Amino acid sequence: MSAASPSTMDDPVLTPDHVRPPALEAKAVSKRFGRSTQALRDVHVSVPQGTIAALVGPNGAGKSTLIRCWVGFESPDAGAVRVLGVDPATDRAGAVERLGYVSQHTGLYRGLSVADHLTLAGTLRRGFDAAEARLRLDQLGIPLGQRAGTLSGGQASQLALCIALGTHAPVLLLDEPLASLDPLARHEFLNLLVAVVRERGATALLSSHIVSDVAAACDGLVVLGGGRVTLQAPIDAALGAHRIAAPGNVDPAIAVATFARPGGELAVLVRSADATLATPSLEELVMGYLAAARSPGTGSGASGPDV
Amino acid sequence: MRGTWLTWRIHRFEVVFVLAIGALVTLSAWVIGDQIRSLGLAEVTCWPRTENGDYATRECGRLMDAFWPLEGQSGLVRVGLNVVPAIVGIILGVPVVGRELELRTAGFSWALTASRTRWLLARLLPMALVAVVALGIMGLAGRDLFDAIWLGRYGPDLTEVSTEGLALVLRGLAAFGVGLLIGALVGRTMPALLIGAVVMAVWGLVVVPQAQAQLIGSRLEWRGPDEWRSGGGSWLGHLGEDDMFDVTNPGLPGEPGARVDQETAWRIQEAELLATCGETPDYGDEDGPGTPEFQAWGSCADGFWSGTSSRMQQWSRIVPRSAWPDFSFLDAGMSLLLGGAAIAATFPIVARRRPE
């Protein structure tokens, strides 16, 4: 994410982080499924090395498609993606070797035990650190002899994460890993992720449609709506550059969008650092930009200048 | 070895299932074959039968009376030997990629491995080894059964070529390759199993017989009580109904032959028909009973194809047993090509496949 100014849907290209080169890049990526489904439209994303970024958006926003492009499971119709400079379209093996991936559907073998999965990962991935994965599973209280089919959703996600971490990959892609977890399991999952990523100086991109899940864990934010990037910025910078205003007295030039807060009360997200206005929560920030993406005419700020 | 062990763990249900049905067919073939051999048919010469259809000796009659019920029982086993190899191959082949895609485990594995080719080989080879072992034992049992059946039977149809030996093994491996490929293409287990079954049925019932028909031309022999006089006659009253004749009594000199198909014909000399009844006159009105001249000619000719004329002779079209290996090699070679092509085609598909 850029250090100071967040990019908006009108200027979705992230301001380059001159300190840290990008671990994950997407340049002008478009992807269509069939005739009617445009999953991604001219998407530009850059996630600097050593950061944890949240990829947020509603269901169907294109989050999984974008992540699968980096893993090499999808090929962009236009544009290119890179993992630490490697394009999966031309060097999938090179990209995969740099990635640890946790799918939304963990893809575990129901008939294999937890220990079998570690063995399997060892046969598939050169240098897989089974001892470390075993240690982490032990810390999480997941029995090695238990069959994956009998694990809870949380345990399955933890296992998938431990395997991804066991690869020692410099980049982790986690596609909605929290969706099926209870609050405690989410907390444990994110704690483990953050601890390891920070310790290793790795990069992680964590997708979710539940903003509050990722608020505490992530440095940066990428909001996808309707296949487009509507916002990407460091979270702190984005929150500092936006305010919540009541409808009616808002300068259209700074308005992003009007949206309904929980309870039905309407609010306007504005690009402003006015100390007299309330700072939005991360969820409000995201809701404002998703509302702008859904109804571009709602707030004039949607087509206005950068924050 | 760890990869092989895990492949076995992942596919243990289908492995156990195919080994069970394979064992059932194998044991049945061995038991019936052993019972037939214990009759001692090889020690007496029962072919050809006598002119009036009796077996050559009274001992032959006794042995053959014991043989035919066992041969009948072997029919079900032979059906099994015909069908089970394809089932074994498809059941082992489809899940290798198809079920991984269906259950989304392919995504888990493919995100870990830098080489999907190596992943496929690690899955493919242990399953192919299971198939080879299971099919190899079935092939030996099938050969054992057929060696026994040859002792007393006139001969199996060519549809049974793939029920023994190398042809059985390779037919099963062809089904394995087809199952592997269709599983990778379809990405769903049940539809892939059904499509694979249809493909192998078409292969066994249409494609292979078509190829056999090409080979038959050079291996075919007409056998009858008289030598065929070339240029002197034609086939009249051609009857394709096997059960209208005692095809187990071919009246052949020497060894029994393998029956190619059901074609048996009554043959008379055309010249004799012409001399007796004259040229075929016009029928006249198609909807009518025929002109009086035609009716008179028909009455005369009826005597030739009524089956009662002593001037008509039963002929059968056969392939001698000595040509059986030619058809076996043809079947095996075609299976090898099909299976090899299907397996080879799976690799680029897996390399490009989008996991669910």
Give a structural overview.
The complex is a heterodimer of chains A (307) and B (356). Chain A has 307 residues and is an alpha/beta fold. Chain A has 9 helices and 13 strands. Chain A has helices spanning 63-71, 92-97, 114-124, 130-140, 153-166, 183-200, 211-215, 235-240, 282-294; strands at residues 7-8, 22-33, 37-48, 52-56, 78-83, 99-102, 171-175, 203-208, 220-225, 228-234, 242-245, 255-260, 266-271. In chain A, strands 1-10-9-4-8-7-6 form a 7-stranded mixed beta sheet, with helices on both faces. A 3-stranded antiparallel beta sheet of chain A has the order 3-2-5, with helices on one face. In chain A, α4 packs antiparallel against α5 (153-166). The radius of gyration of chain A is 20 Å and the shape is globular. The model of chain A is unreliable at 1-5, 8-16 and 297-307 (pLDDT under 50). Chain B is an alpha+beta fold and 356 residues long. Chain B folds into 2 domains: 2-214 and 324-352; 222-320, no CATH class. Chain B contains 10 helices and 4 strands. Chain B has helices spanning 2-10, 12-37, 58-102, 105-110, 116-152, 165-186, 189-219, 270-277, 292-305, 324-352; strands at residues 221-223, 234-235, 257-268, 313-320. In chain B, strands 1-4-3-2 form a 4-stranded antiparallel beta sheet. In chain B, α2 packs parallel to α5 (116-152). Chain B starts with a helix and ends with a helix. The A-B interface holds A 68, 71, 73-74, 93-94, 96-97, 99, 101, 103, 105-112, 116, 119-126, 128, 160, 163, 167 and B 2-3, 6, 9-10, 12, 103-115, 119, 122, 354-355.
Descriptive tags:
heterodimer, A: about 300 residues, Rossmann fold, seven-stranded mixed beta sheet, globular, disordered N terminus, disordered C terminus, B: about 350 residues, alpha+beta, 2 domains, flat
Summary of the model, kept short:
Chain A is an alpha/beta fold and 307 residues long. Chain A is built from 9 helices and 13 strands. Chain A has helices at residues 63-71, 92-97, 114-124, 130-140, 153-166, 183-200, 211-215, 235-240, 282-294, and strands spanning 7-8, 22-33, 37-48, 52-56, 78-83, 99-102, 171-175, 203-208, 220-225, 228-234, 242-245, 255-260, 266-271.
